[in-house]
Amino acid sequence: MLDLSVLTLIAICVASLVAGWVNAVVGGGGVIQMPALLIALPSETPVATISGTNKLGSISGTAAACAAYIPKMSIQWPTVIVAIVFAYAGATAGANLVQYVPRSVFIPIIIVVVALVGIHTLRNPQLGQISAEKYTGRKRSLISAGIGTVCGIWDGVIGPGTGIFLILGFVVILGFGFLEASAMAKLVNLTSNLAALIVLGVTGHVLWFLGGLMALCSLIGGFIGAHMALKYGNSFIRRIFLIAVIILEVRLIYDAILLFM
């Protein structure tokens, strides 16, 4: 156990609760939780250990959201299952690469993608308000596999923003409504989190006590967030989604400045 003060533990737990809420509604709670760990943990803490502890802290909130969504949503299981399988493979590969692949490879590309999608969502108020699925059959399966693979690798290597990227794929590319896409994204994200956690846990890159405290707080936040999303629907999720995209974009730009200075 690290020698962390009570106030530091409380701050991390509060960040985890808020991150669990954000994850349950739109995803991207890692943008809150990961910086909290980076600030709180000693500077010599390996990136892989921070990532593994973050995964343990967030997985329970995502699971709580799944438990809330599944009984009340009509899930497109064939689409989700394909995305889950490829997300698991992608996250496993990403978690094995996290010690070797520099963030600088990914961040500039993602900054552009997130900005374009945020602008597209803002300029199209009806986007994601109803489910208007664009593809069927094999084409949908191939696109789902691509979404799962890319988001799984990102989750394994970086982490924060995975839920947002999954929703982007399901809404913008496949045409689902925000509420349905959020439910589907949670199922895929839970799988990618689990895959990365297994790899990082086996290799000793998880602070189990700290991660357990974070998981408890994330569970509470996830439960609250999922029930709010179900109550207020697509328009509520769209607003939170746009806020999360802005925060994620600011965070990525900040990371890029630090990387390339």
Key descriptive features of the protein:
261 residues; mainly alpha; 9 helices
Contiguous runs where pLDDT drops below 50 for at least 5 residues: none
Specify the biggest β-sheet.
none
Radius of gyration, in Å, reads 17 Å
Which sequence of SSEs, written as H and E, runs from N to C?
HHHHHHHHH
Total beta-strand segments: 0
Strand content: under 5%
Mean pLDDT: 84
SS summary, helix count: 9
Please state the structural category. Answer: mainly alpha
Shape: globular
Number of domains: 1
Distance between the termini: 34 Å
* Helical content class: over 70%
Care to describe what's here?
This protein has 261 residues and is an all-alpha fold. Helix 1 (6-25) packs across helix 9 and helix 6 (137-157) runs antiparallel to helix 7. The N and C termini lie far apart (34 Å). The protein contains nine helices and no strands. The chain has helices spanning 6-25, 30-40, 47-69, 77-97, 107-123, 137-157, 162-173, 178-202, 208-260. It has one domain.
Give the SSE layout.
Elements: H1 6-25, H2 30-40, H3 47-69, H4 77-97, H5 107-123, H6 137-157, H7 162-173, H8 178-202, H9 208-260
Short note summarizing the structure:
With 261 residues, the protein is an all-alpha fold. It is 78% helix and 0% strand.
